[in-house]
TrEMBL record:
PANTHER family, alphabetized: PROPIONYL-COA CARBOXYLASE BETA CHAIN, PROPIONYL-COA CARBOXYLASE BETA CHAIN, MITOCHONDRIAL
Signal among keywords: no
Gene3D superfamilies in the cross-refs: 2-enoyl-CoA Hydratase, Chain A, domain 1
Species lineage: Bacteria, Pseudomonadati, Pseudomonadota, Alphaproteobacteria, Rhodobacterales
Superkingdom classification of source: Bacteria
Species in which this protein is naturally found: Roseovarius aquimarinus
The name this protein goes by in its record: Acyl-CoA carboxylase subunit beta
Keyword annotations: Ligase
Length: 510
């Protein structure tokens, strides 16, 4: 009996060594942790339960039958993060370059199926040379099975991808279909075709980092949601993110104990808006002052900075925040900011996370580039996302809410539940100057008259009260009481149900 038990321990020890000490050393030399070290850091200590440790590939091509390492290049299983169940896979670059074989893919599929059945998030740590070249179409089939599961699980359980090494070719499409992608600076990259192919086909010369590194994907392409300095930091941030999310669409987001008075008054907010309407101010200050303990988890911080998206808690409950940022491009809507916010709104709606929208928007960004690149369709995404969202929606207009952008930003007309405005709000078709130049075109050569018209327009429209008279704004509130009003609004909406008519699915403009 002792020998039998010992054999199990021996086999486990072999599996845990992955591709052997030399390859583990090579992994460390690149500043990367091994697959198992990453799992240990991500999960609560001692909570990891592994599946399929002894799975080995079945390929007999190219002499592969001689090398059949345990685990087949991916560590899979489940564990807990701050006590809550998650399923995960972590590709092991030290074993056949973490390449995806038929059996490697089956292991991933197994934990994805279990995650959906049990209602828990899936976290995928990617570090792989892609399709196992020796396996040909069996490997591609394996990817296909994973892709289908990403799609089936979308909106059912949160899916998070952490890119911690190569992720190239069609392999990128699994992370691309998950809810959040985190990358590590200088040691991870994602591209459909690598620098060599790019050079051959388009004659462009770029490094892997320039083409698909963490900075590129968080700043330029918006493929990734955040970039971190190293594996340890990235995994710690995944833990923080999981704390904000519900385990599945069958559950409400977790409610944390809170020690911050929901009725907290913030006098400094009464002077947040500058006297000059064209002066910017930092919308993040308002977010931090509304949030419990000033804790804000920003998503896509480096992309489309004219729009802020992320999670806070109010009375311990997760709230998704979407806010115009007057510090960048005056907080206007454009293609990038609309896409960014639309995806975030849809994520929150799938997972029953209430939405807080903070509005200071002068309209859509004008320009040939915007029109040629389809601002109509991209702006419509955000409009559509807000209109279809049935979660509790609370909106606070702090200053400008002009034109189409007023309607888009979670207005009453898109079934906003509580639409508040600060007394500094200006809710109008456009700014006074632009408006008078159009409606008083006859006086265009008379600056004095134009100024008088502009003043008249401002007096009549540059306030929240016209909208309040019509009930489009439910209440004009004091800036200092915003946290209290917002907290009470969300508290009153906890039982909200807003069913939509039956449909197979909608047809959001893509
Ligand atoms: C089998 C692979 C492999 C792969 C790497 N290895 N990629 N084995 N299939 N796809 C093995 C190597 O042979 C090597 O084995 C070990 O992993 C480590 O690889 P190195 O090349 O030594 O590492 P490094 O220098 O860091 O380079 C990493 C790399 C390179 C850039 C990822 O390995 C590479 O270019 N691999 C091929 C990438 C590729 O073309 N994949 C197919 C893409 S198409 P030893 O035994 O020497 O340690 C694709 C389609 C998916 O993925 C489609 C989905 C629908």
């Amino acid at each position: 009996m002792k020998d039998i038990l010992q054999e199990l321990e021996d086999r486990r020890a072999v599996a845990r060594m992955g591709g052997g000490q030399a390859r583990v050393d090579a992994q460390h030399a690149k500043g990367k942790l091994t697959a198992r070290e990453r799992v240990e850091l991500l999960l609560d200590e001692g909570s990891f339960e592994e599946f399929d440790m002894f799975v080995a590939h079945r390929c007999t091509e190219f002499g592969m039958e001689k090398e059949r390492p345990y685990s087949d290049g991916v560590v899979t299983g489940w564990g807990t993060i701050n006590g809550r169940l998650v399923y995960l896979f972590s590709q092991d670059f030290t074993v056949l370059g973490g390449s995806v074989s038929e059996t490697h893919a089956k292991k991933i599929c197994k934990i994805m199926d279990m995650a959906v059945q049990n209602g828990a998030p899936v976290i995928g740590i990617n570090d792989s040379g892609g399709a196992r070249i020796q396996e040909g179409v069996d490997s591609l089939a394996g990817y296909g099975e994973v892709f289908q599961r990403n799609i089936t699980a979308s909106g059912v359980v949160p899916q998070i991808s952490v890119i911690m090494g190569p992720c190239a070719g069609g392999a990128v499409y699994s992370p691309a279909m998950t809810d959040f992608i985190f990358m590590v600076k200088d040691s991870s990259y994602m591209f459909v075709t690598g620098p060599d192919v790019v050079k051959t086909v388009t004659n462009e010369q770029v490094t892997a980092e320039e083409l698909g590194g963490a900075t590129t994907h968080t700043r330029k392409s918006s493929v990734a949601d955040a970039a971190f300095e190293n594996d340890v930091e990235a995994l710690a941030e995944v833990r923080r993110l999981i704390d904000f999310l519900p385990s599945s669409n069958r559950e409400k987001p977790p409610v944390r104990p809170f020690f911050d008075d929901p009725g907290r008054i913030e006098d400094s907010l009464d002077t947040l808006i500058p006297d000059n309407p064209n002066m910017p101010y930092d919308m993040k200050e308002l977010i931090l002052k509304i949030a419990d303990e000033g804790d804000f988890y920003e998503i896509q911080e480096e992309f489309a900075k004219n729009m802020i998206t992320g999670f806070i808690r109010i009375e311990g409950q997760t709230v998704g925040v979407v806010a115009n940022q007057p510090m960048v491009l005056a907080g206007c809507l454009d293609i990038d900011s609309s896409r960014k916010a639309a995806r975030f709104v849809r994520f929150c709606d799938c997972f029953e996370i209430p939405l807080l929208t903070l509005v200071d928007v002068p309209g859509f960004l004008p320009g040939v580039t915007q029109e040629y690149n389809g601002v109509i369709k991209h702006g419509a995404k955000l409009l559509f996302a807000y209109g279809e969202a049935t979660v509790p929606k609370v909106t606070v207009i702090t200053r400008k809410a002009y034109g189409g952008a007023y309607v888009v930003m979670s207005s009453k007309h898109l079934r906003g539940d509580f639409n508040y405005a600060w007394p500094t709000s200006e809710i109008a078709v456009m700014g006074a100057k632009g408006a008078t130049e159009i409606i008083h075109r006859a006086d265009r050569d008379n600056p004095e008259k134009l100024a008088a018209h502009a003043k008249d327009y401002e007096d009549r429209f540059a306030s929240p009260f016209v909208a309040a008279e019509r009930g489009f704004v439910d209440e004009v509130i004091m800036p200092h009481s915003t946290r209290k009003r917002v907290a009470r609004a969300f508290a009153s909406l906890r039982g909200k149900k807003a069913p939509m008519p039956w449909k197979k699915h909608d047809n959001i403009p893509l």
